[in-house]
Amino acid sequence: MATELHETIFMAKQERHKNLFLNYKNLNIFPVELLKDEGLQFLERLYMKRNSLTTLPDNLAQKLPNLIEFNNALQMLCPEIGRLRSLRHLRLSNNQLKCLPPEIGDLQDLETLDLAMNQLMSLPDRLHRCLSLQNLTVDHNLLSHVPRQLCWLHRLNQLSMAANRLTFLPLDLGRSRELQFVFVDNNVDLKGLPSYLYNKVIGCSGMGEVLTEALVGLPAEVKVIGSQSDNVVPLEELAMRTMHRIYHHRPAGLNLLPPIILPKSLLDLLQFPLGHCHRCSQAMFTIIYPKLFPLRDTALAGVHRRTTVSFVAYCCSSRCLRTFDLQG
């Protein structure tokens, strides 16, 4: 096997291959032959399917500067992955990954990320820094939620999260016009879809029963569920909305003195609100006004026959709640 591996790599160097296939080689360390000289500087795609690597060398990005696709190599993704700044396609399906390093957010050219068939229980918040990401697949993992920061991936076109343990989706999911395909099939505890998804291509078979009066599985930041009879928005929510406007809409060059010192959790919420009103786009932080639209009562009832899920409009006030119309 070692001789065969050496010959494969030697030939790739000699002929300046752009693609190198090292699948099923029983590798448990990264081949040093790939890093000995500059002979593989033309390599763009490295396929290492079904090996047993647990780490990457520190100088991988230096030795393979043009690598744009890395296919299914690791059982544990190490922080060094963030150094492959030219990487465009990262495929790590059918491994035993239990977590991802925050450094994955450094891959700003990444377009495809395939994490299907692993053991992930969460996704890193910093994933939203992958500004070029278009296709994210996390089917068949152990996710109970996904970070709301994913809604800031404005180039994301397809998001597939089938066969997980999702209990709720980010309130803003689907707000981006670019996101057109969302698949959440076989999440039995997921009962509601944000109304932003109504005109998207969605897969939602095998989901939970229709919501009735109470909403379950909401983000922890939701402190109050408002209703049409509420005429006043709580003071805490008004303060958060005011601070959000100060932080995000102040004139250029204006410094706030003295600086406002806030806990990190609060700063994170100000930067990435819980969601935006599905009626007027007002940022929301601690209170939501939900309005249910059972799928069976919509025009999509005949399309999705294997689910009784509801669409949910999340509004910022009782006024927006009363005037929201799913049909636009």
TrEMBL record:
Gene3D superfamilies: Ribonuclease Inhibitor
Superkingdom assignment: Eukaryota
UniProt-listed SMART domains: LRR_BAC, LRR_TYP
GO cellular component: cytoplasm
Residue intervals of the Disease resistance R13L4/SHOC-2-like LRR domain: 78-180
Database matches in InterPro entries: Leu-rich_rpt (IPR001611), Leu-rich_rpt_typical-subtyp (IPR003591), LRR_dom_sf (IPR032675), LRR_domain-containing (IPR050216), LRR_R13L4/SHOC2-like (IPR055414)
Key words of the record: Leucine-rich repeat, Repeat
PROSITE patterns noted in UniProt: LRR
SUPFAM superfamilies in UniProt: L domain-like
Protein name (database record): Leucine rich repeat containing 28
